[in-house]
Amino acid sequence: MLDKTMYFLYFEMKNFLTVGSVDPRYGAGQTEIEKSLSDDEKKTILAEEQKKYNESIDKRPTVGLSKTVRRSPEEEAAADEINKRFIRDLVGNGSRKAILEGLKSAQLISVYGEYLNGIDYKKNYDNLPEDTRLREKKATYLTSYNNAGIANLIASAKGAVDANIKMLLQPEENDEYGIGKILFDNLKYNKQMKMSTYFKSMGFTEYEKRVYCKRNNCNENETVYDVFKRRLEDEDAEIINSDTIRERVKKDYIKEYTSSILDEANASPKLFFQSHYTEDITMDEFMDMLKFNEVEKAAFLKQFKTPSNNPDEPFIYAKKGDSALGMFYNALNADKEALAEIKQNKIDRGERPEDAEIISPDDVVTYMQGVLESEADRFAFSRYKYKDTISIEKFLGSIGYKKDEVDHFIKERNITRDVPAISVMRMEYIKTLDAQQLANVKEEDVEKFASDFMENERNRLKSMGRPKVYINLSMAMREEFHDSLKTKEEKEIHKYGIAMVANEGVKPKTDPKKEPDKYYAKWVKEKADPYLAENFYNGLAQNFVPINEKLLSGKPLESIKNKDIQRYYDSNVVNTDTALLRGLIDKLEATKGGYGTGHKDTVKFTEMLKALKDYEYKLSYGDMNGIMDLKNTVITKCKKYVEDRESVRRANYGNDRFDVASTALYSLMSTEDFTRWAHAVNGKRSSDKLTWDRLATKQVQFLTTQQAKEEDLQNASSQSRVAKPKSYEAGFVRFEKLVGRIPQFDDKFDGVFSRDDYAEKFKPIDDNERFVQIGPSVTKRNLSDQDFTAIVFAALHTPEVLASDTRLRNHFELKMLAIGKDLTTELAKDDVPLKGERNIQVLADGRDAAINAMNEYAAGNKIPLAHILASGIRNVTAAARSMEKISDDIYMHAEMGVRIMEMINRDEQLKREVEANYDQGQNFKDDFDFVKNVKAMAEIHIKANNAEKFIAREVAKNPSGRYDAKTKEALVTDILVQQLVEDSAVKYNEKHKATASYKANEKKNAADYNKAKMALVKKGLENNLSEAEYKAEMNKIEDERKFNHTLLSINRSNPVANSLGDKKNMDALRESVKKMVKDSGISKKSMKDIAKELKSPKFINKVAALSQQTREQRDKEVAEKRAAAQKEAAKKAAANAKKSAAKK
User: Fold this and answer.
1) Integer CA distances (angstroms), 1097 to 1078, 1087, 1101, in order
2) Which position has the higher pLDDT, 957 or 920?
3) Which of 303, 418, 529, 996 has a 20 to 30 Å separation from 1011 between CA atoms?
4) 205 with 288: CB under 8 angstroms?
5) Model confidence at 868, in pLDDT bands (50, 70, 90)?
6) How many whole angstroms separate alpha carbon 648 and alpha carbon 655?
7) Is 317 helix (H, G, I), strand (E, B) or coil?
């Protein structure tokens, strides 16, 4: 976005100068003329002024400006078009991250303008003789009033940019450019959305949430629908229905959302205070406006103290919950300087002196606002208004120290927390000075040391991942830019520039109070203003002409048609399609390993692939920090790869990589830059030169291929992932409908759930309020109903949802496998087991959690959904690993597990959040990969069930029927594969429980259990526990034992189960069982006899034994044949030898 913002800024600068830039001294008719002069004298002066104005106009063409100071209709149209294009690019997809990135670019330019102001100041300062009176003050004036200076040109244009942004980003009334629709669509509003998600989407801080809820009498757990319905009722709206409520939400959301973004980006502390102040604001809320950390808060509260009657504690300090208005009233009463200033301001406004003495609530609010403005800008110690009184605790807190770090600092120096920071800094500064240096210490030296200390410590903490939090993005960008400067001189220049922009000026080394005001005023009139006027157009020529070249290749603006400006903008501002980047990456991944044996990828190839991946990841997930640098890195790495390839590549992999690299450059570079570079490359290549048609075709090919792949993944989300028998499918669908987007209550649930409770707690989600899809898609804009039910399934296994069920009270893992089962797999059974009425609140909580997580996902917060999906993966794998006999439950575990796995795979950032959600010591990759094994178990189970049912059906229908051997072998194989998997679970579980570590842990578990019971008995006797209290404590102890036993019993080291998801392994397993069945000879038996054999509990062992007998018999026959053959061969050899001897 930085390149777009710079272009827009240049354009506004051009327009600003087109309309208004004439010599500032000579605005015709604007000169102030003394009234005492005669009419002739006045006419003479006006004529001279008009002449100078005309001369000023005549100079405009020398800097690329026309003589007219009015924009032509073409220029007005161009300005409107650029405005529209810029703001649409700025808004992007409407996400807070996207908009803030654009605003961040604008703030970065502002900060750069500050730096340029510092450079101008330094030049002006150096050009003044060293002995100049008020040298700093004069240099400040020459800098601040140089309207042709690049810094002031940028500042003026930046003001226009900010005005456009503010106007266009608040389209709740007039949505000319469609910005409001983009912003509201990004909310993904639905009736079930909670205010907590609404706030999250807006990016509200905790303080902003509290202010909003106070003003609107609501709380975070209410639905947006209910809150705005109530607001319409309070406003006596004539029509209140879903449509009017939706429109009211839209209007409020756009207004609050954009205001919040603008506040975060660049709201002045004054405006920030005015938009957030309420009469009942507490001290904690006031400090939250400043984004104080806990150390700063503690120190700030100590500044507000009142005397007490307790000699041990002479003062009563303010507390977080105290009224800020009351605390600041007391503070203002004690601040004589502030009181005098407020009184004088009131007198200046016309109040009587005796009335001005009275402190009004407005005076207190004004004082609060002044404190907030002073506290907000803590970039450098020298700019801190209260630097003479700030305590060392508050000073260290403003840097970012934690409480223990503050404690260490003051303990090491044997000082107290309330010692003024300037005193401590002076003490630190003079530690290393000798006697002569001590005698020459100045206050500005101490202040500079304090500023350097603050800056160095902030950089140290930032390197540890603890950046300073500022009141807005602009101040944060100032520090980021400052840190990027390399030398102390550059950083000093930047601080000069900040002082210029703040209209403060650089602090003079000479005391202005001792210098006569008339002397300075005379210098301004006689020296400074004439100098600035004389050099105005020279300054424009020096600073603006390069901008004109950058903007329109030196052509006068009035000669450029609207469409030409549009084309220039489009060709120089490149938008990157993330689907294209993923297509390029996939193509490169497919070439890994190159060709031939032992080929290794080159360093240049590896670096190019990594750069593309890093850029795509950041761009896809809205992380714009450093995005321009990453884009430039991709361009650099692709160029390095391409520029070495000066002829046709011999192998396909080389051609593919060359195509990817050159297509990436074609897509990422501006037309002008790419054209220049491509011509240079083609000049070196003997053949296979870069052509625009080929690159355009490749670009479309990579993009459409990737989009088709992503669409296939999205379309698959609407289909079943696992085959299920018809007998189970009906129950599964019944469960999906029960918790789905459009909930439906089946008669089978009568007696399990109350219909009335269900109707109250389960509300439908309309088509126009469906959730956003997970992962990228061009055409699919909604989450499939199948994926939604999978999220509900996963949510029903989270500790938060299960907390409302008191069975298996304490441990989530036990609830996950027990209670979670009651509300998922059990409900899919044909005859729903009635174990007493289930807790419908848990079911409703699970669905609400899924709704909330998807609303949060749409708002850009993927953590709640990641938490739910992680719980789903844990449940599916734990349940499958615990099965020693595969049941029909495996169908739901497999179906939901695959759905969850695919959702995670479609969104890389979500996948990282899921992995981060796994507790330390748990292996996400093991569980994630095991889902494939769960699916394989379901496939094994359905084949075994179908085989058993087929045999039973055929025996019942035709007991004496004849079947070929292959059919019988296939049926028995399907059954035995499942038995083999089940037997392996039993075998490896027994092996697991036989290990020394398992036995030791079980022994410890039993010992801990007995120890806890004995301790409870003792506690009961000593504390006289009631029966209920004793029982509750004992339940906790029982749960602890069950919990530990469950964790110990889950075996992750079953090699058979762990290999089922690999098709090669599965095929090998089936082939070995098939061979065993064939060798057993069971196919020779009738179907009726096979059905009887299947009832044997150790049928697989019997088949294995028969197979072993067959193999042994076959081996014996082979050995006998071999022995007979050897005997016959020996006999023939003897006969031949005898014949040979007879011949001799």
Assistant:
1) 20, 18, 9
2) 957
3) 996
4) yes
5) very high
6) 8
7) strand
Whether residue 183 contacts residue 94, with contact meaning beta carbons closer than 8 Å, is answered with: yes
Question: Is 1037:1013 a contact under the CB 8 Å cutoff?
Answer: yes
Q: Note the pLDDT tens digit of each residue in 598-609.
A: 345 688 888 899
Question: Is residue 555 classed exposed, middle or buried when 0-12, 13-18 and 19+ CB atoms within 10 A define those classes?
Answer: middle
384 token code pair: 């801190």
Quote the CA–CA distance of 433 and 437 in Å, as a whole number. 6
Write the pLDDT tens digit of every residue in 623-638. Answer: 555 566 678 888 889 8
Backbone dihedral angles phi then psi of residue 109, each to the nearest 5 degrees = -65, -40
CA nearest neighbour of 666 among 647, 638, 687:
638
Q: Give the pair of three-digit tokens for residue 475.
A: 């101040």
- Quick check: helix, strand or coil at residue 919? coil
Calculate Rg over the CA atoms of the chain. Answer: 40
Q: Which of 104, 94, 297 is nearest to 203 (CA)?
A: 94
Return the amino acid letter for 244.
T
Please name which of 674, 703, 704, 705 lies closest in space to residue 690, comparing C-alpha atoms.
Answer: 674
- Predicted local confidence at residue 232, as pLDDT: 92
Query: Across the strands, what pairs with 307?
Result: 315
* C-alpha–C-alpha distance, residues 260 and 264, integer Å: 6
Task: Say whether 282 sits in a helix, a strand or coil.
Answer: strand
Query: Is residue 197 within 8 Å of residue 221, measured between CB atoms?
Result: no
Mean pLDDT, range 929-938, rounded to an integer = 91
Query: How many other C-beta atoms lie within 10 A of the C-beta of residue 344?
Result: 12
CA nearest neighbour of 479 among 829, 119, 111: 111
Question: Do 741 and 954 meet the contact criterion of CB atoms below 8 Å apart?
Answer: no
Left if phi > 0, otherwise alpha if psi is -120 to 50, otherwise beta: which for 259?
A: alpha
The phi, psi pair for 12, rounded to 5°, reads: -65, -35
Answer yes or no: are the C-beta atoms of 828 and 893 closer than 8 Å.
Answer: no
The DSSP string of 89-135 is: HHHTTS-HHHHHHHHHHHHHHHHHHHHHHHHHHHHHHHHS-TT-TTH
The number of angstroms, rounded, from the C-alpha of 316 to the middle of its chain's C-alpha atoms is 43
Burial of 559 (0-12, 13-18, 19+ CB in 10 A): exposed
Q: What's residue 894's pLDDT?
A: 92
* 925 CB-contact burial (10 Å; exposed 0-12 / middle 13-18 / buried 19+): exposed
- Integer angstrom CA distances of residue 841 from 131, 186, 745, 819: 83, 31, 15, 13
For residue 340 the two structure tokens come to 């005098």
The span from the CA of 40 to the CA of 1051, in Å, is 107
Question: How high is the pLDDT of residue 424?
Answer: 92
Residue 148 has pLDDT above 90, yes or no: no
Contact 364, 332 (CB under 8 A): yes
With contact defined as beta carbons under 8 Å apart, do 541 and 62 qualify? yes
Which residues sit opposite 750 in a β-bridge? 753
Q: Please say whether the beta carbons of 140 and 500 come within 8 A.
A: yes
pLDDT for the residue 545: 56
Answer for the pair 490, 484: CB distance below 8 angstroms, yes or no: no
Question: Mean pLDDT, to the nearest integer, of 24-52?
Answer: 66
Q: Is the pTM higher than 0.70?
A: no
DSSP 315: E
Q: What is the dihedral of CA 552, 557, 558, 561, to 10 degrees?
A: 40
Q: Which residues contact 770 (CB under 8 A, 6 or more apart)?
A: 190, 741, 782, 783
Closest CA to 733 of 801, 785, 655, 683: 785
Phi and psi at 719, nearest 5°, equal -115, 160
Q: What per-residue confidence (pLDDT) applies to 26?
A: 44
Chain mean position to CA 473: 17
Is residue 472 within 8 Å of 267, Cβ to Cβ? yes
- What is the domain partition of the chain in residue ranges? 1-91+538-573, 179-267, 268-376, 385-471, 574-713, 721-917
